[in-house]
């Protein structure tokens, strides 16, 4: 008789716990949101909290649309493996890639500045690596065990640092 009492009590307590948990875990804590009508050229975002919600709606939103293109092509040695790539193309309502009509085209001044920066960076990198290889690397290569690593790092660091300075100077001379 005692076993039946304990079993029935345990069953009732278990069912009560499940009922309490089901009551405490409510999925309707957030407000019910009336979603606006959307089409091909409209969008909305919703921010919902316990205090309420905010909807940002754009009725005619042709600014930039995206299209994903998946390709699965042969790759590797003699085409024995497959290359899975995904390309995302952005275009406007008028079908132009990249946004507005003139977007993506550089002016002559911008092209000159980019060319000057690239040339200055190249020349600066050559000067930096030459000076480092001639003056700093021999001193660092004498360090036991890691000298070769320190000499290479110093040459790389000098090339990068002086290359950046060369790019800035060349752009200043160009008037950028």
- Contiguous helical run count: 3
Oligomer: single chain
Computed Rg: 33 Å
Q: What's the number of structural domains?
A: 3
Portion of residues in beta strands equals 15-25%
Mean of all residue-level pLDDT scores:
78
Biggest sheet, open or closed, and with what strands and sense? 2 strands, antiparallel
Number of strands: 4
The spatial strand order of the largest sheet comes to 1-2
Query: What overall geometry do the principal axes of the alpha carbons give?
Result: extended
Helix content: 40-55%
Unreliable segments of 5+ consecutive residues = 99-103
Task: Classify the secondary structure makeup into a structural class.
Answer: alpha+beta
Calculate the terminal CA-CA distance, rounded to whole Å: 95 Å
Order of helices and strands: HEEEEHH
Overview features:
single chain; 176 residues; alpha+beta; 3 domains; two-stranded antiparallel ribbon; 48% helix; extended
What does this structure look like?
The structure is a single chain. This protein has 176 residues and is of the alpha+beta class. It has three domains: 31-61, no CATH class; 64-105, no CATH class; 108-174. 48% of the residues lie in helices and 20% in strands. The protein has three helices and four strands; from the N terminus they run αββββαα. The chain has helices at residues 2-24, 108-140, 147-174, and strands at residues 43-49, 52-58, 65-75, 81-91. The strands form two sheets. It has a two-stranded antiparallel sheet. Strands 3-4 form a two-stranded antiparallel sheet. α2 (108-140) runs antiparallel to α3 (147-174). The longest helix is centred in the C-terminal third of the chain and has 33 residues, at 108-140. The radius of gyration is 33 Å and the shape is extended.
